[in-house]
Design goal:
The chain has two domains: 366 residues, Thrombin, subunit H (Beta Barrel), CATH 2.40.10; 156 residues, no CATH class. Helices cover 47% and strands 15% of the residues. Strands 1, 2, 3, 4, 5, 6, 7, 8, 9, 10 and 11 form an eleven-stranded antiparallel sheet that branches. A hairpin with an 8-residue loop joins strand 1 and strand 2. It is globular.
Length: 717
Amino acid sequence: MKRILAILLGFTIIFNLNLRADEGMWLLPLIGKNYEDMKKQGFRLSPEDIYSVNNSSIKDAIIGLGKEGSPFWHFCTGEIVSDQGLFFTNHHCGYGMIQSHSTVEHDYLKDGFWAYSQDQELANPGTTASILVRIEDVSEQILSKLNDGMSEKERQEIIDKEGEALSAKAVEGTPYKAYVTDMFNNNQFFLFVYVIYQDVRLVGAPPSSIGKFGGDTDNWMWPRHTGDFAMFRVYTGPDGNPAPYSEENIPLKPKHFLPVSNKGVKDGDFAMIIGFPGTTNRYITSFGLEETMNVTNKLRFEIRDVKVKVLRAEMRASQKTKIQYASKYASTSNYWKYSEQQNKALKHLNTMQIKKEIEAEYLKVNTDPKYKEALNLLEKGYKDRYDYAVARMYLLEGLISGPELPFFAYKCSGLLSALESKDEERINKLVEAIKQEAESFYKDYNPDTEKKVEIALFNYVYNNLDKTYHPDFFNTIEKKYKLNFDKYVNDMFNKSVFATKEKLFAFLENPNLKTLQKDLVLSTGISILSKYREVNTQYWKNSDDIDKGSRIFTEGILNMNKGKLMAPDANSSIRLTYGQVRKYDPRDGVTYDYYTTIEGVMQKEDPESTEFEVPARLKELYKAKDFGPYVNEKGELSVCFISNNDITGGNSGSPVINGDGHLIGLAFDGNSEAMSGDIDFEENLQRCINLDVRYALFIIDKYAGAKNLIEEMKIVN
């Protein structure tokens, strides 16, 4: 009913889409504008308790997890819970790191891992931990350098140049790192300064039967019973500054850490989440939405479905393969399901029609011709690149990120030109670099599994992608192999130096040009990437139209809402969202309570399913009702709870914080009924699924016996 009324009220729909208290990923320095509303919902601290440049504040306890080389793109969030740099994040955030330490003999995915002293903690090279220092609005400095006569390319060059200069000046003489990013589609600009730590160590993780309980079946679903947490620690150099891993490093002494609440939650309680949401696209037009639904989501689901089915069968057949491909499968399957569910939610909410009505009202309010031209540019831009968007998805999902071996070989293709040049120094450097890369690649690689993935995906892409966009190697399969994909792939593996680690290292002992030129895996990889670059160039050829149209359209939306609170789209920068713990009614006659208990874990147990295994130790504790002090007032052990916070990917692991600034949970998922959330926030259905921190404490204490970690935290009863 609310949505129908909003549509009938004309342009007020714009306001309703952007101003509901539970919607919005807010910038920390501006949170004072939301303060009165936050207090009404149960917040008992001050804005300065959240964000302060000069004093300790909650921001100092929030970690953005990144990777070396792209530390400002945060794949997950963590929160510090001790004065020794100990932090929580999600099990699925640490999954790749846990997997990297696992072997058949020491399967930490299956059995869990716990460090009972700091010298047992495991290093994770390449993982970074960012903590915010400050945020500054630099819109005036950058916008003053721009004018309407510039092309989008010229604008972006100036934005990049000014952003780099402002970032360099901001961190001069400090160990900090900084960058400038846009908000509202290049209408505002903010400088973010972080301290980025390079030594992150695994401290504890429950077995996957707890941390990943429910698997793909329960993913994006409520009710949920997943103990989705892991524990890590940030280390610094002896001087307290960021430093690469060293045995001499010491635990971080944070400016702030979160007390952990053992009080639990009730329906209606205030809930605040601070983290690093990846991307949303709330200001997308109907033209962009059509591409998202009919190209990106549709094809991602269909193509990944092919790979998911192969990996499932392979992992069921072999424990070794299960360990090797666990992280790869998780990353593939996550957005495989998401893509399908988001399309269903968008159709159910009639989002396309709503976007068109917003655009109509936008034109009524914004009478300057440039605003109409913006929509024309967007319509033309998306139409012109449609065929390339389709081809790009097939090539990217089906041939680049689907199979692994051709792309790995392609990354080694620099050796071709080095051998042609006969430059011994260059050759030797490349050989050593390839060996390093190979050590990591082949650790989690199974030739038989890779063969099956390649056969399935090569076949699928060949038969579904317009031949105009076929890579050249498809012509070889067609003419020389008579479309016998099995034979082509088997020849690749029988003849290629890249087929196994042993073959590659033997070749690298005495690399020669002719062998590499004839290598079928390498030529396949080059063929795929060559076609992808060609298609990608055409795809982005119309980006000026879409970029300019999006910028001016968003400017028009901001004009319509002057004086109103507006939240920019997520872009992996730190944000705050607030709301309340809330149950919901997903369908007629169905009401979902706001929390689940260990009873549900036992009810879901299925010994025949790898997704619903329950560890023997957990069953023992359940039968004895040995839950320690972590129960609610009814004597129940709560597992998860839901709140109406606005989150997206990147928020995984984010702290759920109560009105007193205490940790009550870890955000880890959204609900399927509101998978439209990145594009269209649905106020009645949108829920954030959170791990109850008391369940994490119970697992650490009673299940793992890691009393050292319990004692390290400040637990508030």
